[in-house]
Design a protein that fits this description.
189 residues, alpha/beta, 5 helices, 20% strand
């Protein structure tokens, strides 16, 4: 991995973050709702007993509807919490108060769980399931500890690119869900 590899990733990040920043709040809500509806209709999401999600930032595709649906269906929901040393998925209360939002407050998601759907944000994805994140590596390390779950990238269609640079430590997604469709066979199971 050399300078060209890092430069390619920086250029892709810059271009797609700029595109994402141009989305209006209404567009984010509309596109997020369409992508969430696709995933809610999948058998994989219906069967999962645990859902590890994220709180959208910087105009990311918002999984809030998926989180609400998972909680309403009695699924255990986890959100990422970062400390100086580690990134873990921590349980949220089953009935969060309206003023509290969804603060993590429970136990960490055990690595051996196999009925987990991971909803993963990214700056870019390719059809092979390669993900380009923010560049810190938190998700790759965390997902590397949780090898038995189904990893689903959530993104806008413009974030799916023909090919991304890949490092040996990168963790691939089983599927990518956008407002326009699904890439990967994992959701048909």
């Amino acid at each position: 991995m050399g300078d060209t590899y890092d430069q390619d990733k920086r250029l892709i990040r810059g271009r797609l973050r700029a595109s994402r920043s141009q989305l209006s709040p209404g567009e984010v809500a509309r596109l997020s709702a369409r992508a969430c509806a696709r995933l809610l209709a999948s058998p994989i999401f219906a069967r999962a007993r645990h859902v590890a999600a994220y709180a959208a930032a910087d105009n990311e595709l918002d999984p809030a509807r998926l989180i609400e649906a998972a909680l309403a269906a009695g699924k255990n929901v986890y959100l990422p919490v970062t400390s100086r040393e580690r990134f873990d998925f921590v349980a949220v209360p089953a009935r969060p108060g309206p003023e509290a939002g969804l603060p993590p407050g429970g136990p960490c998601l055990p690595p051996e769980m196999d009925d987990v759907v991971f909803l993963v944000p990214g700056v870019a994805f390719d059809a092979r399931g390669v993900r380009l994140g923010r560049g810190v590596g938190w998700y790759d390390r965390a997902l590397g500890r949780h090898t038995r779950g189904i990893r689903i990238g959530l993104a806008y269609e413009f974030q799916v690119v023909p090919s991304l640079p890949e490092a040996p430590w990168d963790v691939r997604m089983h599927a990518i869900v956008t407002e326009a469709g699904v890439i990967g066979a994992a959701l048909a199971q």
